[in-house]
Design brief:
Elements: H1 2-29, H2 35-52, H3 58-81
Length: about 80
């Protein structure tokens, strides 16, 4: 039983590290193939559109940022409670 831990724990950590190295490589070489890159691109377009019509969309920008923060807080709280 103990020898299994000696094998499986490092194997799990290596798989975790390998995945993150792969993800980092994909983000650097082909960012639009990952959801992180796609979201970053959409955020850049959103910020550009908000800045372009700054007078009309001031409240929209603030409310959108507030909603994103509230959503992140809710998800973090839920994950901690689970």
């Amino acid at each position: 039983e103990c020898y299994l831990d000696v094998i499986l724990v490092p194997l799990g950590l290596m798989a975790y590290a390998a995945y993150h190295v792969y993800l980092w490589h994909k983000l650097r070489t082909e960012p639009l193939t990952t959801i992180i890159g796609t979201n970053a691109r959409a955020r850049r377009f959103w910020v550009a559109s908000i800045i372009k019509d700054n007078e009309k969309k001031n409240i929209l920008a603030v409310q959108t940022l507030r909603n994103c923060i509230m959503g992140s807080t809710l998800m973090a709280t839920t994950s901690i409670l689970l």
